[in-house]
Design brief:
6-stranded mixed beta sheet, Rossmann fold, two-stranded antiparallel sheet, single chain, 13 helices, alpha/beta, 333 residues
């Protein structure tokens, strides 16, 4: 049976199990299906598959009909494993049921594999996370460590990227992970356009804390949102903590504490990440010299930009620009 009908597109198979979280499946379909080239061509083809096609129970009061079986995994370029409510009935042993293990064995070597939330249990049980950094929902962290002591679990981040294997934390972090994969495949401009169309934040760094003790300010309390908005409009200028705090009429100490409560990182960490994103955008979308990109993104000098881009992405500005210019000429498959 033909599953993927457009061989020129990147093929994504979403492998679901009974008790699937419907929102997680919807996230994958919505984001990747809304990703287009500059000429309006869809860049991805997405299908949902399961071990036994037909009606499949969700975590809500409805079922989904899934037409494709595990044969969809044979041709996939990326496989995504959402969670199942059955994962929250703690696994008694770190072993996959035989039908699921057989299905995963169909995935071709080199295929990118990603999990959302407790889908990481499946990847770990399949041996795909051995010795790698991974994450899952923070509530499942202790049990995960008991079952898979050789996985470097980090329950404090939104997602992890080990190249061909990626993991994400609780439900909404699936959005961050999908946008991250789109950004890696096609650049920040394409990912940002998908985010705008879906009305979600274009970029929450994988290192951002997944669980913030007080993510929403109490009624009538001050927020740091205005300072962040102001900073985004002045990234090319020197910005100090004192300036940011003054925008919210707070002391530096109070502002720093409130900022970390709301965003999950320090103001200076956040500012550096925003400048890296601005630099990426300019490198992808303009022909500006590297010195000008450094100035416009607030790094000041090409040497400073090179240092920060190397730390964040592991590449130089010229190598990063060259990669995405090449992708404009050679379409992703």
């Amino acid at each position: 049976m033909t599953v993927f009908r457009h061989p020129g597109r990147h093929r994504i198979a979403v492998l679901v199990r009974p008790g699937l979280l419907a929102i997680e499946v919807g996230i994958v379909h919505r984001l990747f299906r809304q990703t287009f080239s500059a000429t309006g061509e869809p860049l991805y083809e997405v299908v949902t598959c399961t071990l036994d096609p037909g009606e499949i129970r969700t975590d809500a009061d409805f079922s989904l009909r899934v037409e494709h079986g595990p044969d969809a995994l044979d041709e996939a370029d990326t496989v995504v494993l959402p969670s199942s409510d059955e994962d929250y009935e703690p696994w008694s042993e770190p072993r996959l049921p035989a039908p699921l293990a057989d299905a995963l064995a169909r995935i071709r070597p080199g295929t990118r594999i990603a999990s959302i939330c407790s889908g990481a249990f499946v990847l770990a049980a399949a041996g795909l996370l051995e010795g790698r950094r991974a994450t899952t929902h923070w509530r499942s962290a202790d049990h995960f460590r008991e079952l898979f002591p050789n996985v470097e679990l980090d329950p404090d981040v939104l997602y992890t990227d080990s190249g061909d294997v990626l993991t994400s934390a609780g439900v909404a972090s699936g959005i961050d992970l999908c946008l991250h994969m789109i950004r890696c495949d096609h650049g920040s401009a394409v990912a940002n356009e998908v985010a705008r169309g879906t009305v979600v934040a274009p970029h929450r760094d994988g290192g951002q804390a997944q669980f913030i003790q007080r993510p929403v300010p109490e009624p009538r309390s001050s927020s740091t949102g205005a300072a962040r908005a102001w900073a985004l409009g002045h990234l090319d200028q020197p910005i100090t903590l004192r300036q940011l705090a003054a925008r919210e009429a707070m002391s530096v100490r109070t502002f720093t504490r409130r900022f970390r409560e709301e965003v999950g990182v320090s103001p200076l960490q956040w500012l550096t990440r925003q400048r890296v994103e601005r630099a990426r955008q300019l490198l992808e979308e303009t022909d500006l010299p590297v010195d000008r990109v450094a100035a416009d993104s607030g790094f000041g000098t090409a040497a400073s930009l090179r240092q920060h881009l190397q730390a964040a992405l592991g590449v130089s500005p010229s190598a990063y620009r060259g990669t995405f210019r090449l992708r404009e000429i050679v379409p992703s498959t």
